Amino acid sequence: MKQSLTSLKRLWSYLRHYRGMFSLAVLLTVGAVGVNAILPYVTGLPITEISNNLARGEQLNFGYVLKMIGFILLITVLYSGMQYSAVYLMTRVVQRSMKDLRRDISQKINRLPVSYFDTHQQGEVLSRVTNDVDAVSNAMQQSFIAIITAFLGIVTAVSMMFILNVKLALMGILMIPTSLIISKIIVSKSQQYFQKQQDALGDLNGYVTEHMTGFNVLKLYGREKETLDGFKEVSHRLSNYGFKSAWISGLLMPLVSMTAYLAYIAMAISGSFLIISGSLTVGNLQAMIQYVWQVNQPMGQVTQLAAVLQSASASTVRIFDILDEVEATENEKDVSLPTTILGRVTFENVAFSYSSERPLIKNLSFEVLPGQTVAIVGPTGAGKTTLINLLMRFYDVTSGSIKIDNIDTKAMNRSDVRSLFGMVLQDAWLYHDTIAENIRFGKLDATEYEVVDAAKTANVHHFIKTMPKGYEMEIDEEASNVSLGQKQLLTIARAVISDPKILILDEATSSVDTRLEALIQKAMAKVMEGRTSFVIAHRLSTIREADLILVMKDGEIIEQGTHDSLLAAGGFYEKLYHSQFDESGDYDD
């Protein structure tokens, strides 16, 4: 509960940017409540006049009654206008504040370390950005004016009740502490289920996102039933928590209403005796009953909002959890990049582990000269991709240093480090936009000529020209309207247009056929020319011309040299190489 209150208070940091509109909305709400507070009293005046006329046997005072009716209509119009204006202004405040909150979450995600996404499902993170922010937005939209109106309405209604009759007022306000006690008990029981409901919703989004991404694989292996069972389990958990939270919070309204009805009954009976004794007029009793309604109605509105508010409270905690995550730290004063980058890369006694209990890379040292092509080979789990992650500063080394042109990358800004690299990955990533924009992703201000030139360098220009609309053809959301090889060539074109100083090719040809491999190799040869290049390859036949081959096993470089020298040495690389041509070879020997 304390964490929820702290998170809700932090929302004010977003609202205060629009405190002018917020204050005006509150003032209009105060005015509307004040106008509404005198309405029961004014409504009681013509009733009292009519009852007095009838009691005295006089003719009804139609002039006075009509004048009061006109006054009542004026009050109603004024109240409605002020209430509408307050809601309009508050809506603008809330929507602009939520836009700022979404912006901050988006910027925060860009600053989070890669390790955060290794431990959190994409769908769960997405749920915080969408569902949780929507829950907060809806709650603020519905509740701000309602809560202010409720508080002020109760205060003014109670004040008017004391002005009219103290005894009846004391009887009527007993419903307030009773309702508060009931609300506190119900909220304390239901809040835990609202938190679990939001967590379960994040799990559901994560589950759906993951399995929709691998939909073709699920169909291929006939895992529909198991996937459906898993979905049912997560969905059942969400349904269970949703039912418990809604059912418990739903008890608030009838219980609070019950206290109001008891107050009605007690006040009506007592007020009748006061009228008979002549100490209270009929109009004032009618006004007192209306004031009880003005106390009960806002309390009922707030109790109806209890479920929305509790859901928003749980969502607010989840939102600020991600905003409070530790960011990838930068140096207070980063070393600036030199004007000319040669591309010399040095690993000096590098050690790294994802967890302290299990070291992954140990005492890794090597040097790559400018313009050299370095191939990194080894069995699965040897640390090849981890080495690249360290080079790109997706993770920082545990000890030792990685230097580019004798500058420690930890002394540089991460964005400066990554600006030196171009990457072509095994899993080619394209987004839902035109082919031209997918290539231009490597250099956002690239001209049309540069886009076409990059495509020609990557041997993909001819393919693009054969497609409908050419460079303006849209890649669909799953990038399924182009082949795997074509996607790979497009990512090479993207790397070309960025004009990187250092190129990383992570198993870029491992998933294509021999013909496309030759085409991709030819494109990569053009891109690698004159650049320092790191190549991770499972097909050892593709790296024979590499200037340096690093053989990794269990996080260490166990051999290094050229293709011919490593074969002549007859060590691990020689066994690894021949295992790809000899079915009896042991890959991990």
From TrEMBL:
Domain ABC transporter as annotated: residue spans: 345-579
Keyword Lipid metabolism belongs to the record: no
Tagged with keyword Nucleotide-binding: yes
Domain ABC transmembrane type-1, residue spans: 24-311
GO MF: ABC-type oligopeptide transporter activity; ATP binding; ATP hydrolysis activity
InterPro entries documented for this protein: AAA+_ATPase, ABC1_TM_dom, ABC1_TM_sf, ABC_transporter-like_ATP-bd, ABC_transporter-like_CS, P-loop_NTPase, Type_1_exporter
Entry protein name: ABC transporter ATP-binding protein/permease
Cellular component per GO, a single term: plasma membrane
Superkingdom, taxonomy of origin: Bacteria
Membrane topology designation: Multi-pass membrane protein
Location of this chain's protein in the cell: Cell membrane
Signal peptide as annotated in the record: none
Positions of transmembrane segments: 21-42, 62-89, 144-163, 169-187, 246-267
PANTHER family: ATP-BINDING CASSETTE SUB-FAMILY B MEMBER 10, MITOCHONDRIAL, ATP-DEPENDENT PERMEASE MDL1, MITOCHONDRIAL
Keywords tagged on the record: ATP-binding, Cell membrane, Membrane, Nucleotide-binding, Transmembrane, Transmembrane helix, Transport
